[in-house]
Every structure is written in C-alpha cells, then in structure tokens.
Target: Monooxygenase
Amino acid sequence: MNKITIIGAGAAGIGMGVILKQLNYPDFQIIEQGEIGDSFQKWPNETRFITPSFTSNGFGMPDLNAVTIDTSPAYTFGMEHLSGRQYAHYLKLVAQAYQLPIIEHTTAKDILTVDDGYQVITNQGTITTKYLIMAVGQYHTPRLTPHPENVVHYSQVDSWESFSGHDQIIVGANESGIDAAINLAQLGDKVTVITDETGLDADEADPSIRLAPHTRHRFMNLLLDHADRVNLVRHQHLVDVIHNDHGYELLFEDGRRMKSKERPILCIGFSAGPVTLWPDLFRFDGHQMVLNEFDESTVASNIFVVGPDVRHQDAIFCYIYKFRQRFSVVMEEIAKREGLDISDLIEANQRNDFYLDDCGSCGVACRC
Ligand SMILES: Cc1cc2nc3c(=O)[nH]c(=O)nc-3n(C[C@H](O)[C@H](O)[C@H](O)COP(=O)(O)OP(=O)(O)OC[C@H]3O[C@@H](n4cnc5c(N)ncnc54)[C@H](O)[C@@H]3O)c2cc1C
Model:
C-alpha cells in the first residue's frame, strides 16, 4: 500500500512530488495518464506563457513559473514567455533532477473507498493508498456546448496555421479567446469574437479576472496593425451550436442566431478536473469545488487537491505562482496527521513565498 498517491504529472503534481522528495518521504508515487507535462505538450504550437519567467530566485521571489524554489524556466531556456512544449521539457528536467517516482501512461479511472484509504483503479491495475493528491488540472476537461461535435475547443487545436484561410467565429474573449483571435488575424483571417464578458473590460487588478498585460499588449498591437480583421461582439451568451445543410448555426440566450460556414472555435474555458472526473468525492456549490482550509475534500477525508481548481474566498489559485504556494500547506497537514516534523521545509518555503495559509489576505488590489 502506498502512503501517498499523486494523480497527474503536470505543474502541480511535479511541484508536490518535489516537496515529498525534499522530505525524503519514502512511500509515494505519481501516476500520469500521458507523459510528464502532458497538457503543456498539447497546447497549440503558437501558444506562449502569459506570465513572464525571470530568474529572480534567491531574493525571496522565485521565477513566477517555477514549481520549486531552486529552478527557473527562464534560466533553463533563456526566455520570458515559454511555449507549452518547452515548459513540459522543464517539468521533465525537474522530475529527473529530483528522481521523482512517476508512472506514465497510467490513467486513474474509478476511485473506491476501502477501510484504510482508497483504491485507485487504473488501466494498469489497482493502487491502494492512504492519501490521494489530485493534480489532474483542467486541460483535459474542456467546457463544451450540448453538441460538442459542432465546435472546436481551444484545447483541440494543434496549430492555428491549420485553421486559417476562412472567416472565423470565436466564442469567448478572455485569455484563450483573445489569443486565438490574435493568432488567426495575424495569419490574415477575419475574426468575429463573441462573448458574454471579457477580461478586457475588467476593472479588477487580479490577472485571474483581468486580461493579463502580455495578452492586452498583443491585442492592442493587433488593433494598431489590423483593426479591420477583428470584430468584438459583447453581451452574447452562447447556448448551443447546431449543424445544418448550410453549415453551423450559433444559438444565443436572447434568441439571436448567427451563421458560420466553419465550426466555431470555443474559448470558454475549462471545468474543474477533480470534480468532473469524480463528482462523488467532492462537494460542488454550483461555482466551485468546496475544499477545507487544507485543500482537502469536505466529503472524502485524506483526498487533497493541488492546482488551479483551488479557490478560497476571493483567492483564485489559477496561475502557477499562486497555486504553488499551497503545496506546503497540504504537506504540512499530512505531516501533522503522520506525526512528522517538517518545520525546516515550511520555513524555507515561507522565506521564498512558496507558502500561503491565510487566503483572506490575498485579494489583489492595486492603487495605481
Ligand atoms: C492556453 C493556456 C495558457 C496558460 N498560461 C499560463 C501562464 O502563462 N501562467 C500560468 O501560471 N498558468 C497558465 N495557464 C494555466 C496552467 O497551464 C495551469 O494552471 C496548469 O497547467 C495547472 O497545472 P496542473 O498540474 O494542475 O494541471 P496540468 O498541467 O493540466 O496537469 C494535469 C496532469 O494530470 C494528468 N491527468 C489528468 N487526468 C488524469 C487521470 N485520470 N489519471 C492520470 N493522469 C491524469 C494530465 O494528463 C496532466 O498531465 C495556462 C493555461 C492555458 C490553457
């Protein structure tokens, strides 16, 4: 029986695995359905990180995209805005450096409760474990419409080059929708972006709500050079896309309809991975998964969540520089239950801004 099983070897699973290795924790493993950094490997070719990387480590503020306090994607690649494939490579290097026990091509399917923990049924057999750490992310659970075959989701695009050459309709105008619009318009397409709300308009300072500076800057440059190629339509909420002899028809909440020859490109985000995959193991309040102060399920004890689905009050942990601060909080609680003293590690992580236990204090407010 394993003490700890981490499901998923993305940014969160690798970061959490490093903490366990730093503690010389003997009895854990990470299972991954694809390869390390699978989601990042599947990003469209042209997609780049929004958060810049910079080797600021050692001064209390590690590289924003690092998953450990002693690594830096900026150092590894000499770049600020990495591609998905580069970041997956960074995660592989971290996994190698820390000799993480990762079993690839192993998909967690069912999870059963047993006397002393859980049984994880995988395509490679059954794993019994006391603690489960869900690090499955969101990329594999895209938000779709009732007829998913009539749309293309951002996460299904390998490269924008293979899409260009047509008038395009993009639904959604936050990070992925604006990114899709920029890529397609730069390739010469005329793009209509339809959205119910957009981070372009948001007053909030938090980049989890407001469009990030990098994307905003790219979009403004696009409007300077090719304003005629982009049409932004606000306050329209898509409910379905149907297919008929003439192509595709988009249906909106207010009854409006719009026609398109091509399948519309859906950029409406992702659903929370753990609760989508295993709804019985979590409480969902209609907006988000409900977790306790240690990011543990309120329904199934000893099941913790790390990654972008963690939310507490106004704190949305959807960026790596945010959710990495919760790894040690989860570990501290498991250590307490196991009677282990990990205060040295906690202190080191606190010194490096890799520890955040007071979520009430992290609303983003900028005076100017
Ligand atoms: C286009 C785009 C741009 C982004 N840009 C940024 C950015 O600039 N900065 C930033 O901080 N964040 C960014 N993000 C968000 C960031 O990518 C995610 O927050 C991050 O990937 C979450 O890490 P994770 O480990 O939780 O999930 P993932 O990286 O998705 O890893 C989850 C892993 O779990 C595996 N898995 C899933 N289900 C199972 C299963 N049942 N069994 C076994 N394995 C499973 C998957 O294969 C995957 O490898 C971006 C996201 C997108 C989509």
About this structure: The CA atoms of residues 157 and 256 lie 27 Å apart. The mean pLDDT is 95.
